[in-house]
Amino acid sequence: RITHAVMDLGQAFRNSFQAHCPGVQILYDKFHVIQHLLVALNEVRKQELKRAGQPMRGLLVGKKFILLSRKQHLKGPARQALKPLLGFNCRLFKAHLLKEIFGQLWSSPSKTWARTCFERWVEQLKGSRLAP
Q1: What is the CA radius of gyration of the chain?
Q2: How far is the C-alpha of 85 from the C-alpha of 87, rounded, in Å?
Q3: What is the mean pLDDT of residues 102-131?
């Protein structure tokens, strides 16, 4: 009997498992969840790039992968470029911070702690007023 299913966020997968395996516990894989988060962060970056004046555009152009990378994986010049990028404006900083906090959920010591952190993250997300 199948009790758990791990899948991406596609609705078709969810519908199929619910139809053929009633009561199955659905778990979403980390890669696809983080992928959606990175798409949202990049959307904020694009919005801020459009809103930026000409002098500030140079700060944002070509920095996509620095912004989308996990801070702990950045080394040398890329790590140094992140600070002024995040200092550019509040919306970009909030989006990056939400991404970093969310990434820590997978290292939670317990299910209870992870759920509490996730609920706090959702509240922070709502308070950020970031559409993506």
Answers
A1: 18
A2: 5
A3: 90
Cα–Cα distance measured from residue 100 to residue 103, given in angstroms and rounded to the nearest whole number: 5
Q: Are 98 and 117 in contact (CB under 8 A)?
A: no
Tell me which residue of 36, 45, 89, 88 sits closest to 65, measured CA to CA.
Answer: 45
pLDDT band (50, 70, 90) for residue 8: confident
Q: What mean pLDDT value characterizes the chain?
A: 86
pTM for this entry: 0.78
Averaged over 37-48, what is the pLDDT?
A: 89
d(CA 83, CA 14): 40
- Alpha-carbon span 96 to 105, nearest angstrom: 15
Q: In which residue are the tokens 């619910």 written?
A: 18
The whole-number average pLDDT for the span 63-73 is 85
